[in-house]
Amino acid sequence: MNRILYTLLLLIFGLAGFAATAWAADGLISGTEFGAENEIIVKFSKAVDKAEAADPSHYIVFEESDPDIRLEISSVTVADNGKQAVLTFTDPLNSSKTHIVNVSGIGGVEQASSPVSKSYAGYLISVLISALLINNFVFTKYLGLCVFFGTSKRKETAKGMGVVFTIVIVVAVSMSWVLYQYALKPYHLDYLQIVVFIGLVSLTVQAVDTVLRKVNPVLFKSFGVYLVLVIANCVIIAVPLLMASNEYNYFETFMLSLGAGGGFLLALYLMSSVRERIELAKVPKSFKGLPIAFIVAGQFAMAFLGFSGLQLF
Amino acid sequence: MATDKTNFQLVANGILKENPIFKLALSMCPAVGISTTVINGLMLGTAVLFVQVFSSVTISLLKNFIHPRIRIPTYTLTIATWVTVIDLSLAAYFPAAYAKMGIFVKIIVAFAIITMRLEMFACKEKVSSSFWDGLGMGLGFLVGMVAIGFVRELLGSGAILGYDVLGFKPLLFFILPSAGFFVVGLMMGFFNWIEASYSARKKR
Q: ipTM of this model?
């Protein structure tokens, strides 16, 4: 059981180690990136005339989705070697969107353009971290509580439930994505979302149950009991619905489901560690069991509020 | 096998003895998540009542055609169908309230309480008993949601159903999202205490 747990953790943090890939553009502009919240840094492939490069009217910047709305540039600072210019905007930029920088009349080049975006791997990691900590499904969205309180009495059960849940949710949500993108959406069957998604979950649970029973009976003995509980967990239906309403692509969907499963595992593990200790403490008689567990969960929820606003990339 | 309880006992059982929220501790997500006002509790409680009654009756009608080995998927799909019905109806007729409840109407499909009643009651009993049992469980959930909503709204914002009754806000903390856990925990402890002292007095 521990080996699976570590493999999962390794997978999560291994993905975090992805190198960032920057957009490389040909021609005059060799690279662009976001600077401070209202800055874009433009790098030139050769030294350009400073007076030309410092003129804000030579730049046109807009968000890729809204080409008509041009963002107002308040000033341009050019580096001494003439190879880099920092565009300062009057308003802060929304760095989660791709911006387009059009340059004209600099260095004898008629026009050059380059997209500016945060590195995609970084964005994916932020989806993962968001589902794992900032929008933890248990402590900040209050989902999956029945199973959460039911299986957090012992660390062993907490780990088993968390790992099984993570595996099932990743498989089920991946299938939901395929079905949603290639069947529900093209044929306008959106109203069948709930039926299809929950049906896929029960199918996955049944399949994992059958396969595990034949392939690895030992593992089935320790994990089998949790499989039935997966379907009673609200998170398993909330994640595909979120995926559908946000129009996520496959990688984002994968990260979201991995984060949701990992977040559930994390919440269960934290809670079970506390509940094992509460059993030794003197709790008022009428608060024994569930009531005190709820109050502890409330404190966890307040602690998790501290993650809001966390931004890594 | 037919139950020997009267219809009234079946309903009362769901509201008091096996209250889904305070006694069985099932379907806690909405009880914590959106119970900040009485009206929210009322809306979601009604939705659950609808789904519970209709799923119970459907399964009870079809119980002789369902193969035991695929009964759980059958329950799930039945519930999902009725959830879709109530979800689309609410979205069409009460868009404002529906927007407030967000994803919680859709996740009724994963509520353990409904599946549990189908498995333990509706698949064995006749249609009329299943109807009353479903009604009792649904009402029990409704009462629990309204009770939590009442406490949170009264103590958190000093109001009931949006009308200011107290004129001041005794415990603003209760209206915050994360306080849901505290309120449910405290209320559970309170009911345990009442029950314990009541049975102690009875013994004496």
A: 0.85
